Amino acid sequence: MSNPFYAAFLLALEAQRVIELRLVRIAWGGAEAQAEMVSMVGEKVVAAMEAANTLLAGGSHDRVIRRSIDESFLDLSDVREADRVTLCRDMRETVRAWTGIPTCVGIGATKTLAKLANHVAKKVPELGGVYDLTDPVQYDHWMARIPPEDIWGVGPANARKLEALGCESVADVRDLDTRAVRKAMTVVGERLIMELRGMACLDLEEIAPTRKGCAVTRSFSDRVEDLATMEQAVAAHAARLGEKLRAGGLATDHVTVFFHTSEHDRGRPQRSVSSVVTLPEASNDTLVLVRACLHGVRKTWKDGHRYCKAGVVTTDLVPLAASQRAFPGLGQLDMDHGAALMGALDACNRRFGCGAVVPGSAGFAPRREWSTKFDMRSPRYTTRIDELPTVAAA
């Protein structure tokens, strides 16, 4: 029987050789080097998740639950306790070799304890990026030393509530009366206590729950006072809504459009309106959504106000393939033509960048004067080549 970690080692060596060749190409400079750098940055992000999923699951994705772009949960119940740390160390080193991205792994009896173990692995370099919190001695040691605000799901408001209950460590939180916690933090707090005691209350969702709603909202960089600018902003939001729905294979038969003024504009007339527009049948076609949203804007627009925010919201999403069709001649949409057109639009945006192809009513991103400003945003080193730090040698 072949050893998967030996195979992973061979793949890592091959990947390192490929990386060396690509770096040589970059060193030559020019347009090809720029394109190669953009490609490498994007590939690293995708490869990090794929490498972790493949290795953790022994060659499949069935046992790995992706929580976000850079985090996953894995069910280790089928792995012997004596082998868990070794497995996680091998996984961590393989991800580092394949992608160059460092990771940390936390092992716990529940999701919440696994997150705490991951927190310890990050804070203590001597652990080598892997920590097992299932050991009773280590469990007691760290429960008494981690503050309550470091618990997964405890925000500033709940941290203050726990402080009021006399909690100075995770151990104090764990030992609270569940009735008092439920009264202060609802059933979510009670689940948290049970998770800290080693009783799993947050199951691994091997099939992600179907999305029920979707929203695209933005504050304007400056106040909007004319209908044309508001229409452009809402059309752009509707286009983004369509992209999100198509990515999940979902559709909607109604959209809610809203826009409002700012309460901080003292002495100015205030207004907050919304409009629900119903479609003849469920759709995720950008052009259909844009038309519906623009109708909602025109129906509720009123001059003489300085609007600060607008958005598009939809609920009760359904799978497009299983949605109810309208009768022919009574509003039925041309699904086949729309699907082909949206497929081409999405392909162009994947290849040339988000917003490369948009409906004319949404305007091109560089010319949108209303777009939200991101002057204080942290550099996006992993996804934007133009934001990478540069070094000059004299």
Number of strands: 9
Beta-strand residue percentage: 15-25%
Low-confidence stretches: none
For the sheet with most strands, the description reads: 5 strands, antiparallel
Radius of gyration: 26 Å
Number of helices: 11
In whole angstroms, the N-to-C terminal distance is 55 Å
By oligomeric state, this entry counts as single chain
SSE string: HHEEHEHEHHHHEHEEHEEH
> By helix and strand content, what is the structural category?
alpha+beta
Summarize model confidence as the mean pLDDT.
Answer: 82
Shape: globular
Helical fraction equals: 40-55%
Describe the structure.
It is globular, with a radius of gyration of 26 Å. The chain contains eleven helices and nine strands. Helix 1 runs parallel beside helix 3 and helix 2 packs antiparallel against helix 3. The strands form three sheets. Strands 5, 6, 7, 8 and 9 form a five-stranded antiparallel beta sheet that branches. The chain has a two-stranded antiparallel sheet with strand order 1-2. The model has no long low-confidence stretch (mean pLDDT 82). It is of the alpha+beta class and 394 residues long. The relative contact order is 0.08. The longest helix has 27 residues. 45% of the residues lie in helices and 16% in strands. Strand 3, helix 4 and strand 4 form a beta-alpha-beta unit.
